[in-house]
Amino acid sequence: MLVEAIPIIFVIVGFILIAPLEGALEMVEILPALVLVILILAVGLINVFMRLRETLAIGNISNEAKAAILTTTLIGVSLISAIPIVSIVAILIMLA
């Protein structure tokens, strides 16, 4: 899934760049990567919640099914958020 591929690449590149750094990078140098990771995270989360809204709009869904759908959605949100959060932390480490 494209939503996860780009942050994985940022994690790998980020950790490769952290090791040989002589000094801290400036915010201007890491801002494009940081903005891109946040945008990708936002697109992924928006997509999940749009699908949730479409699914719940069907109408004749039992309460048990709604609870299962919501639980699955929240698990998906946590999985989609994991890699971008690691990417953001790695990028911010490069500021130190």
What does this structure look like?
With 96 residues, the protein is an all-alpha fold. The chain has one domain. Helix content is 81%, strand content 0%. It has helices spanning 2-18, 27-56, 63-93. Helix 1 (2-18) packs antiparallel against helix 2, helix 1 packs parallel to helix 3 (63-93) and helix 2 (27-56) runs antiparallel to helix 3. The longest helix has 31 residues, at 63-93. The mean pLDDT is 86.
Write the layout of secondary structure elements.
Layout: H1 2-18, H2 27-56, H3 63-93
Helix pairs in contact: 1-2, 1-3, 2-3
Strand content: under 5%
Uncertain segments of ≥5 residues (pLDDT<50)?
Answer: none
Helix content: over 70%
Characterize the quaternary organization of these chains.
single chain
The total of helices stands at: 3
- On the 0-100 scale, what is the average pLDDT? 86
What are the secondary-structure elements, in order, as H or E?
HHH
The class by helix and strand makeup works out as: mainly alpha
Task: Please give the number of β-strands.
Answer: 0
Q: Give the distance, in angstroms, between the N- and C-terminal Cα atoms.
A: 31 Å
Largest sheet: none
- Given the C-alpha coordinates, what overall shape results? elongated
Evaluate the radius of gyration: 17 Å
User: Number of folding domains?
Assistant: 1
Transmembrane segments: 6-23, 30-49, 69-95
Keywords: Membrane, Transmembrane, Transmembrane helix
